[in-house]
User: Which sequence fits this backbone?
C-alpha cells in the first residue's frame, strides 16, 4: 500500500480525490482531528460524536489504502450529527476506538438506517483489513449480522483500533452510527422486536377492521382506508428493514425500489381516502381539483420510479409526500370551517402523525434526546393516524345513517301529506294500467256513486254513458290509440252514475310510468254546474241581444242630445274664458286707472313736501302720502290675489342670500320696533345655507307679511325670526322659518281660517287693527307654490308663532365661517344681555368667530363675577344699552374702572333712534355701537375694527352715480296724463336732465325721428298709438336699436314686463314711480354706473339727513336749499382742516370746529353727524387728544355720508350770487305769469310765481298785498285754481 501511494499515477489520483472533497471538508471542523472514542468497560452503546471522522470521495475512486493514509483530510461533522442530505458519490468514515482495558472487547458498530444502498466495512485483521458488505442492494444473507439494521461485529483488543466505512446510497445519506457492546446489542434487539411486531399487528387489525366494514357496508371510504393502511404498513416495514429481512430477503432490487414505490402508493391511497372522506367532489370543488391533480402526480411518480434515476425520484417523492400531507391537513381545516364536523378526526390524525414524525426525525438528527417517544414516534404517528381515520369514518357513516333516516322519515311524511292531498282533492284522480283502475281518489268515486270495491271491479268503459260523449267516444279514442294516431290529452265526456244520472266532466290524461310499466293518469273535473250555467247564459244572451238592439236605438237618441249639450258647454267654456280675459283686462285697466291718480297724489305730495309749508300743512300732507301708500299696498294685495286666482303668479329662480333678504325685511320694521319698544331678534341656524336659488321677492313678501302682522298685534315683548334646516339633499334643502311674537295670540279654533281669503281672527280685528284679510292667503299660496306649508301655533305664555317650510335649491359652496385671528382669541368675550333669545343668538355669532363666550343677564351680575375673578381674562365685552337696573353705559364704565389695564374693549348694542344714548356713550369713551337686531357681518366688522384690524372692502367694479353725472342728458317723456307729466318732469329736471314731452306714441315716433335723445320714458296705454306699438316702430322702422326705452306704466298684471321686453323696451318702471328706482334705471341705461349703496352713501330722508326736519326747522325750502349749498361748499375740506389741527395738537381749535359743525348739522337735520361732532367737542373739552384722534374716522365717515346725501337730493347747484331783487316794474309781469299758470292749472309753476311775487311785495313793505297773496297761495295748495284766479283778480284789479 505504501508503494502504491508513491507511484505518480497514484499520487495524481490521490490529489484529484483530495480536491474533489474540498466542498464537504469546508463543512467539517479541523479542530478535532485525531480524536478517539474510549470504549473501555463498554456496557451499552455509545454515540461516536466527534471521534467519527468523514471524508467525501467526490470522484468515487478512493481506495482503502488512500483512505488510511495519514494525509487524507478526514474531519468530524460540526453542524449536523447524522444527515448529509442527498449525495451521488461515496462517503468515507473513520473511527478510532481505544480499549484501555487488559482484555479484548467484542463490540458491534451499527447504522440504524436500513434504506442505505451499500456499506463496506473495513476492520483490522491478521493480514490487513477485513472487508464486510451490507445494504439493501445486496442479498440479506451476506450480512455479517442478521439484523434489520446495518451492523458489523468488531473485536477490540487492548489499545487503539481504527475501522473504516465506505457508504454509497442514492437516497438520503442518513448515518445514525453507534458503537455497542455485543451482548447489549442483542439484548436491545430482543427488547424492541416485540414492540415492532405489536405495531404491525395493530396495523393489520385496523386493516381487517376496514376490510370487514367495507364488505358489510360497501362504503368505498373503508376500502381506501384499508389500502392506505396496508401500503403504509408495508412502507414502514421497508423503512425499518423488516420487509427486507422477512418478506423479500433474496430480492435486493425490489428491496431497494420498494421504499419509493410503497411511499408513492401510500400517498395515492391517502389522497383517495381524503377525497372520499371529506366529500370534496360536492362540498369543495376547488380542493377536489387539487386532490385529483395530486392523484395523477402520485401515479406518475410511482410508475416512473423503476425507470428513472433513483436519486432524482427519491427527492421528488419525498418533497411530494411532505407537500401532500400539508395539503391534506389544510384541506381538512378548510372543510371543517365549511361545516364538515367529522373533519376534526382528520385534522387531529394528521397533526399527531406529523408530531410523531417530527420526534423521530429530531431523535435521528440529535435534535431531541433518544427515548421511547423519539424512537417510536413514526410508528405511534402511523397508528394514531389510522385509528383516528377509522373513528372518523365510523362517525361519518353514523351521521350519514342519521341523515338518511331523517330523509326517509321526511319522505314518508311528504308521501303521506301528498297522498292526503290527492285523496281529498276536489277533482277526481284515476290511474289506469292495462285497462284496469289501480288507484282512484275519493272525489272520483263520489262522482260515480260507487263504493271503493265496486269501483275497482268495474271495467273502465262501463263508467261512461251510452251517448256521443260517453262510451262511443271512449271506444273511438281507444281504436285511434291502437292505430298509433294522436288523440287530444283533454276532452269532454259524460259519465253514468250508479243512480243512472249523467254527469258532464272534463278529463285530462297524462302518460306515466309506475314500477316500470306504462300507465295513464287522468284528472276528472265535474263541469255539470258549468254546463247548466252555460245554458242559462245562452238563454240570457238571446234576451240581451234583443235588449241591445233596443238600447242602441236609445243610445243614438241620447247621443244626439249629448252632442247638443256638449255644444252648449263648449260655448259656456268659451264664455268663461272670455270672462276670465275680460277680468284680467279689467284688472289691468283698473290698475292703470287707480294707479294713475295714485301716482298723481303721491307724486304731488312729494313735490309739495319740498316746498315751504306750515307745520299743520306738512302734517296733513304726510297723512295724505302715508294713506296713499297704504291704499297702494291694498291694491297690490288685490292684484296678487287676482294673479293667484288666475294661476298667473310666476316665480323666478335667481341666486340670492337669505341673510340679505331677512336683513332687508327687518330694516323695514326698525321704526316700529323703536316706537313700540319691542325687541326684534333674528336667529338663523348656521346649518342653513345662505346662498339660495329661488324668488327673493316672494320670499321677502311672505316674511314681510308675517312680520307686519306680528308688529300689528304685539304691543310689548319681543318678535323673533328663526330659520333652521329640516333636511338637506344633494341640490335642495328644506327650510323651516318662523315668526314668533308675544302679542295677543290667535284663537286655536279659528287658526285654520286665518289663511282663507278675506278672513281674520274675528270682526273686531278689522275694526281695531285694519287690513284686508288677503295677506295670509297670499302667503299660503306663495309658500305652497314654493313646495312648503304654512301654519300658526300658540306660544305658551302668550303670543303666536307663524311657521312655514319651503323646499328650495341652494348654491353648493363650502365657505368657511369668518374667524378672527388667533391673537384676538386669547381672551374671552363677556356678553351682557337681558333678553334670552338675543343672548343665545349673539353668543352663537361670537362662538362662530372663534371666541370663548361668558354670559350675564345684567350689569350687576357681570360686575360681581368680573371683580370676583369668576371670568377668564377678557378681551372684549358686548353690552346691551337697555339693561334692567344698571344700564349698559354704566356697566361698561364700571368694567373699565375695575379692570384697569385688564379692562376689555367695549361694544354697545341698542335699538335705533337712541341718539342721546349714543352721545352719552361717546362722552364716556365708548365709540362702537351696533343697532339691533345685530347682524352677524356687522358684529364681525366691528370686532375687527375695535381690535385694530382694518376691514377689507370689496372694490366696486362700477363707480357710484350721483345726480351730477346725469346733468345735460336729453330725455323724451311720453305720457298722456298731464299730472303724471308734471310729476315726472319735476323729478327729472331736479336731477339736471333736459326733458321734452309727447302725449302719445305717434308724437314720440316723430320726435325721435327728428331729434336726438339719450333716453325715452314710454307709457303703455295712450291714445292714437300705445307705447308697445311706438317702441316697435322705433326699433323696426327707424332702426334705432341702441336708444334706451324704459316702460313707465300703471299696469301691474303678470306678463306686462315680458310684453314690454318682447316689444323691444330695455327696462320697466311701474307706477306710482319711486324716485330711487327711476334714478337707478336711468343711471344704468345711460352712464352705466351703479347707484350708491346705503352702506356707502345713505340717501336723504334717512338717519343721515332728515330733509323734512331740516325744512321745518329753517321754515323755508329756499332757505334750506341755500343752507345745504353753503354747507356743501364750506365742509368739503373740513376733514383736511381737522386732521391738521389734530396733528398740531391744537385742542382749542378742534373744540371750536367741532362745536360749529354740531350746530350746523343739527340745523340741516343731520342728527348722526351732530352726535359725532358733539362727541368730538366733549373729548376736546376734556383735552383728551388720543380719544379725539380715535373719534376722527367716525366723524369723517358721518360727514362724507351727509355730503353724499346732499348730492343725491339733486337740489344743490354750485353756489352763486343771489339774484337781484325784482324791480317794481316787474310786478305786472309776475302777476301776468301767475294768471297764466292758474289758467293752465299748473300748481308747481303757480307756486313759483307766488314766491316771486311775495319776494317783490316784501321789498315794498306791502303788508295788505302780502296777506292777499298768501290767501291765493292757500287756494293753489288746495287745488282750487278757479278760486285763486278770483282772489287774484280782486287783489290786482
Assistant:
Amino acid at each position: 500500500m505504501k508503494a502504491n501511494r508513491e507511484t505518480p499515477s497514484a499520487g495524481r489520483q490521490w490529489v484529484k480525490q483530495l480536491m474533489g472533497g474540498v466542498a464537504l471538508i469546508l463543512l467539517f471542523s479541523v479542530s478535532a482531528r485525531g480524536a478517539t472514542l474510549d470504549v473501555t468497560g463498554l456496557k451499552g452503546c455509545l454515540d461516536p460524536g466527534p471521534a467519527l471522522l468523514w471524508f467525501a470521495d467526490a470522484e468515487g475512486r478512493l481506495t482503502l489504502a488512500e483512505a488510511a493514509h495519514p494525509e487524507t483530510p478526514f474531519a468530524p461533522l460540526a453542524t449536523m450529527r447524522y444527515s448529509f442530505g442527498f449525495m451521488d458519490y461515496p462517503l468515507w468514515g473513520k473511527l478510532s476506538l481505544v480499549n484501555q482495558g487488559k482484555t479484548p472487547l467484542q463490540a458491534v458498530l451499527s447504522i440504524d438506517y436500513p434504506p442505505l444502498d451499500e456499506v463496506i466495512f473495513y476492520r483490522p485483521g491478521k493480514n490487513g483489513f477485513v472487508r464486510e458488505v451490507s445494504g439493501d442492494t445486496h442479498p440479506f444473507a451476506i450480512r455479517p449480522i442478521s439484523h434489520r439494521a446495518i451492523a458489523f461485529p468488531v473485536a477490540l483488543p487492548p489499545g487503539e483500533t481504527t475501522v473504516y466505512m465506505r457508504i454509497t446510497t442514492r437516497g438520503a445519506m442518513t448515518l445514525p452510527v453507534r458503537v455497542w457492546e455485543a451482548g447489549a446489542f442483542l439484548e436491545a434487539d430482543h427488547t424492541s422486536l416485540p414492540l415492532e411486531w405489536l405495531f404491525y399487528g395493530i396495523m393489520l387489525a385496523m386493516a381487517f377492521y376496514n376490510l370487514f366494514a367495507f364488505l358489510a357496508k360497501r362504503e368505498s371510504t373503508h376500502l381506501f382506508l384499508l389500502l392506505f393502511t396496508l401500503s403504509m404498513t408495508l412502507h414502514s416495514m421497508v423503512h425499518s428493514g423488516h420487509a427486507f429481512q422477512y418478506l423479500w430477503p433474496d430480492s435486493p432490487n425490489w428491496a431497494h425500489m420498494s421504499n419509493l414505490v410503497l411511499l408513492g402508493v401510500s400517498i395515492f391511497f391517502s389522497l383517495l381516502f381524503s377525497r372520499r372522506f371529506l366529500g370534496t367532489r360536492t362540498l369543495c370543488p376547488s380542493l377536489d381539483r387539487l386532490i385529483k391533480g395530486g392523484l395523477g402526480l402520485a401515479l406518475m411518480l410511482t410508475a416512473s420510479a423503476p425507470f428513472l434515476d433513483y436519486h432524482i425520484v427519491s427527492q421528488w417523492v419525498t418533497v411530494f409526500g411532505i407537500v401532500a400531507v400539508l395539503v391534506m391537513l389544510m384541506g381538512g381545516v378548510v372543510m371543517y370551517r365549511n361545516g364538515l364536523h367529522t373533519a376534526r378526526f382528520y385534522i387531529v390524525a394528521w397533526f399527531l402523525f406529523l408530531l410523531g414524525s417530527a420526534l423521530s426525525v429530531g431523535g435521528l438528527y440529535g435534535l431531541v434526546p433518544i427515548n421511547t417517544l423519539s424512537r417510536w414516534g413514526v410508528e405511534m404517528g402511523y397508528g394514531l393516524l389510522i385509528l383516528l381515520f377509522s373513528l372518523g369514518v365510523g362517525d361519518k357513516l353514523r351521521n350519514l345513517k342519521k341523515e338518511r333516516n331523517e330523509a326517509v322519515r321526511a319522505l314518508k311524511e311528504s308521501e303521506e301529506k301528498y297522498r292526503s292531498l290527492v285523496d281529498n282533492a276536489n277533482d277526481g284522480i284515476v290511474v289506469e294500467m292495462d285497462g284496469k283502475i289501480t288507484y282512484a281518489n275519493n272525489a272520483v268515486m263520489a262522482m260515480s256513486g260507487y263504493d271503493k270495491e265496486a269501483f275497482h271491479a268495474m271495467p273502465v268503459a262501463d263508467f261512461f254513458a251510452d251517448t256521443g260523449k260517453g262510451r262511443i267516444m271512449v271506444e273511438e279514442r281507444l281504436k285511434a290509440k291502437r292505430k298509433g294516431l294522436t288523440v287530444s290529452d283533454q276532452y269532454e265526456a259524460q259519465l253514468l252514475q250508479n243512480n243512472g244520472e249523467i254527469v258532464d266532466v272534463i278529463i285530462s290524461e297524462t302518460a306515466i310510468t309506475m314500477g316500470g310499466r306504462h300507465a295513464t293518469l287522468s284528472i276528472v273535473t265535474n263541469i255539470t254546474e258549468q254546463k247548466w250555467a252555460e245554458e242559462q247564459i245562452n238563454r240570457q244572451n238571446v234576451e240581451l241581444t234583443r235588449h241591445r238592439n233596443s238600447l242602441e236605438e236609445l243610445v243614438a237618441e241620447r247621443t244626439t242630445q249629448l252632442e247638443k249639450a256638449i255644444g252648449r258647454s263648449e260655448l259656456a267654456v268659451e264664455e268663461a274664458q272670455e270672462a276670465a280675459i275680460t277680468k284680467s283686462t279689467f284688472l289691468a285697466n283698473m290698475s292703470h286707472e287707480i294707479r294713475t291718480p295714485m301716482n298723481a297724489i303721491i307724486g304731488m305730495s312729494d313735490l309739495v313736501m319740498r316746498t315751504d309749508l306750515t307745520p299743520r300743512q306738512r302734517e296733513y300732507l304726510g297723512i295724505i302720502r302715508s294713506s296713499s301708500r297704504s291704499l297702494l299696498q291694498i291694491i297690490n294685495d288685490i292684484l296678487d290675489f287676482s294673479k293667484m286666482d288666475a294661476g298667473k303668479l310666476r316665480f323666478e329662480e335667481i341666486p340670492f342670500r337669505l341673510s340679505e333678504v331677512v336683513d332687508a325685511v327687518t330694516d323695514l320694521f326698525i321704526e316700529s320696533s323703536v316706537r313700540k319698544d319691542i325687541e326684534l331678534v333674528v336667529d338663523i341656524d348656521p346649518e342653513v345655507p345662505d346662498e339660495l336659488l329661488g324668488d327673493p321677492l316672494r320670499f321677502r313678501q311672505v316674511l314681510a307679511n308675517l312680520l307686519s302682522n306680528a308688529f300689528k298685534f304685539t304691543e310689548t315683548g319681543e318678535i323673533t325670526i328663526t330659520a333652521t334646516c329640516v333636511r338637506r339633499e344633494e341640490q335642495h334643502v328644506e327650510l323651516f322659518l318662523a315668526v314668533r311674537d308675544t302679542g295677543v295670540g290667535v284663537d286655536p279654533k279659528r287658526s285654520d281660517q286665518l289663511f282663507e281669503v278675506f278672513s281674520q281672527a274675528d270682526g273686531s280685528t278689522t275694526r281695531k287693527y285694519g287690513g284686508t284679510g288677503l295677506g295670509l292667503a297670499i302667503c299660503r299660496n306663495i309658500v305652497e307654490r314654493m313646495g312648503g306649508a304654512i301654519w300658526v301655533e300658540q306660544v305658551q305664555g302668550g303670543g303666536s308663532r307663524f311657521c312655514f317650510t319651503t323646499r328650495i335649491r341652494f348654491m353648493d359652496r363650502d365657505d368657511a365661517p369668518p374667524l378672527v385671528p388667533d391673537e384676538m382669541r386669547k381672551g374671552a368675550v363677556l356678553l351682557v344681555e337681558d333678553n334670552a333669545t338675543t343672548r343665545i343668538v349673539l353668543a352663537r355669532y361670537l362662538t362662530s368667530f372663534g371666541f370663548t363666550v361668558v354670559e350675564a343677564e345684567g350689569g350687576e351680575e357681570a360686575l360681581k363675577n368680573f371683580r370676583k375673578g369668576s371670568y377668564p381674562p377678557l378681551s372684549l365685552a358686548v353690552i346691551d344699552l337697555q339693561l334692567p337696573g344698571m344700564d349698559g353705559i354704566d356697566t361698561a364704565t364700571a368694567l373699565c374702572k375695575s379692570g384697569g389695564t385688564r379692562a376689555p374693549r367695549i361694544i354697545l348694542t341698542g335699538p335705533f333712534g337712541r341718539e342721546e344714548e349714543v352721545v352719552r356713550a361717546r362722552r364716556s369713551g365708548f365709540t362702537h355701537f351696533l343697532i339691533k337686531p345685530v347682524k352677524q357681518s356687522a358684529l364681525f366688522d366691528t370686532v375687527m375694527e375695535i381690535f385694530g384690524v382694518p376691514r377689507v372692502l370689496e372694490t366696486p367694479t362700477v363707480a357710484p352715480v350721483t345726480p351730477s353725472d346725469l346733468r345735460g342728458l336729453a330725455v323724451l317723456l311720453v305720457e298722456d296724463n298731464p299730472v303724471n307729466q308734471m310729476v315726472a318732469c319735476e323729478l327729472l329736471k331736479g336731477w339736471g336732465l333736459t326733458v321734452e314731452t309727447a302725449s302719445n306714441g305717434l308724437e314720440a315716433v316723430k320726435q325721435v325721428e327728428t331729434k336726438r335723445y339719450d333716453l325715452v320714458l314710454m307709457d303703455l296705454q295712450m291714445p292714437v298709438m300705445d307705447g308697445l306699438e311706438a317702441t316697435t316702430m322705433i326699433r323696426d322702422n327707424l332702426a334705432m336699436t341702441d336708444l334706451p326705452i324704459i316702460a313707465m306704466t300703471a299696469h301691474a298684471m303678470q306678463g306686462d314686463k315680458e310684453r314690454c321686453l318682447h316689444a323691444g323696451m330695455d327696462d320697466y318702471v311701474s307706477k306710482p314711480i319711486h324716485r330711487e328706482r327711476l334714478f337707478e334705471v336711468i343711471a344704468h341705461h345711460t352712464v352705466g354706473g351703479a347707484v350708491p349703496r346705503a352702506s356707502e352713501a345713505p340717501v336723504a330722508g334717512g338717519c343721515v339727513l332728515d330733509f323734512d326736519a331740516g325744512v321745518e326747522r329753517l321754515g323755508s325750502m329756499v332757505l334750506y336749499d341755500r343752507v345745504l349749498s353753503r354747507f356743501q361748499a364750506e365742509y368739503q375740506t373740513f376733514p383736511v382742516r381737522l386732521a391738521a389741527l389734530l396733528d398740531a395738537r391744537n385742542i382749542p381749535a378742534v373744540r371750536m370746529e367741532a362745536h360749529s359743525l354740531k350746530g350746523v348739522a343739527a340745523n340741516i337735520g343731520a342728527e348722526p353727524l351732530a352726535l359725532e361732532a358733539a362727541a368730538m367737542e366733549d373729548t376736546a373739552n376734556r383735552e383728551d387728544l388720543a380719544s379725539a384722534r380715535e373719534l376722527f374716522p367716525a366723524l369723517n365717515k358721518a360727514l362724507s355720508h351727509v355730503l353724499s346725501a346732499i348730492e343725491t337730493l339733486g337740489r344743490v347747484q354750485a353756489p352763486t350770487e343771489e339774484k337781484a331783487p325784482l324791480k317794481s316794474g316787474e310786478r305786472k309781469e309776475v302777476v301776468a305769469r301767475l294768471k297764466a299758470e292758474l289758467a293752465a292749472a299748473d300748481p308747481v309753476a303757480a307756486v313759483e310765481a307766488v314766491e316771486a311775487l311775495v319776494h317783490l311785495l316784501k321789498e315794498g313793505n306791502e303788508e295788505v298785498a302780502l296777506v292777499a297773496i298768501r290767501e291765493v297761495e292757500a287756494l293753489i295748495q288746495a287745488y282750487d285754481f278757479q278760486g285763486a284766479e278770483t282772489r287774484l283778480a280782486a287783489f290786482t284789479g
Q: What stands out?
A: The CA atoms of residues 1045 and 1160 lie 43 Å apart. The mean pLDDT is 78. The longest helix spans residues 528-609. The two ends are 181 Å apart (CA to CA).
